[in-house]
Amino acid sequence: MFNLNQTEKISALSNAVTAGWDMSDMMERRVALSQCRVFFDFDHTISNIDVVDDMIERFSVDQQWRVLEQQWQNGVIGSEDCLRGQMRSVRATREQLTEYLSEIEIDAYFHRILVLLKKSGVRPLITSDSFNFLIETILKSNDVHGIRILANHLRIRGNRLTPLFPYKNLACLRCANCKTSHLRNEDSLGKVLIYVGDGRSDYCASLQAHLVFAKDSLAAHLRQKGKKFVEYRNLQDVYKALKGLTHE
After folding, report:
1. 51-59 helix and 132-141 helix, angle to the nearest 10 degrees
2. What is the pLDDT of residues 201-229, one digit of tens each?
């Protein structure tokens, strides 16, 4: 496949998205890691917990967030409406949030993955329905720097939090952050798209990737859609699989 010209390669890769690839397909086509773009969800993918849910539960002044969460999980509302409603109940200052976030750990293998990707000239992206401030603070406290983050924004004034959604798709009410648009970016043309995720906010984007690492509800969703994926437990599994694409 990678002996094709650019136009032929883009066409072949586009046709490959629907069915998806597993690791045997990647090996058969001799796909090298350097030919890929790699996207990561954050909550419960890079982080060991769902940070947004944990933060909301910890700092909410009522239980309305649970009702909204269930409505989102059931597909009754989109994630923008869910997050807007949930943030109205949260009371936390920037200092309180920073102290809380500095204690959250990430999967230790994320560091190894970043080193592996750097050696292959691949710059990974984090695409998340969480918030830049949360992700940046956690990564900094875990000594991760320089990774591009495409997530929702958070305005903090006193102890009130206001969510902002710079990457929403006005034609779609499902996602606050349109991860699909990030995968379809022109930088992705001719690249094999790899996506790593776990949940509902990853459903749309995972259907645009060639190789998906999935667990939990994302894995169930892809089974239902009949799309190939690689099931993983933690980022150690992802690291081992990606290392196999370096052809060392």
Report:
1. 100
2. 999 999 999 999 999 999 999 999 999 99
94: its two tokens: 């920037």
Cα-Cα-Cα-Cα torsion 92, 95, 97, 100, nearest 10 degrees, comes to -120
Best CA proximity match to 82, nearest among 12, 152, 9:
152
* Interatomic CA distance for residues 90 and 64, integer angstroms: 10
Note the pTM of the prediction, 2 decimals: 0.94
- The answer to whether the beta carbons of residues 219 and 230 sit under 8 Å apart is no
Residue 125 structure tokens:
């992206």
Domains of the chain with CATH codes: 6-243 (3.40.50.1000)
Which residues are paired to 7 by β-bridges? none
**Angstrom distance (rounded) from CA 245 to CA 85:** 43
Identify the pLDDT of residue 15.
Answer: 79
Nearest alpha carbon to residue 104 among 40, 53, 154: 53
**Residues 217-245: b if buried by 16+ CB within 10 A, e if exposed:** bbbebbeeeebbbbebeebebbbebbeeb
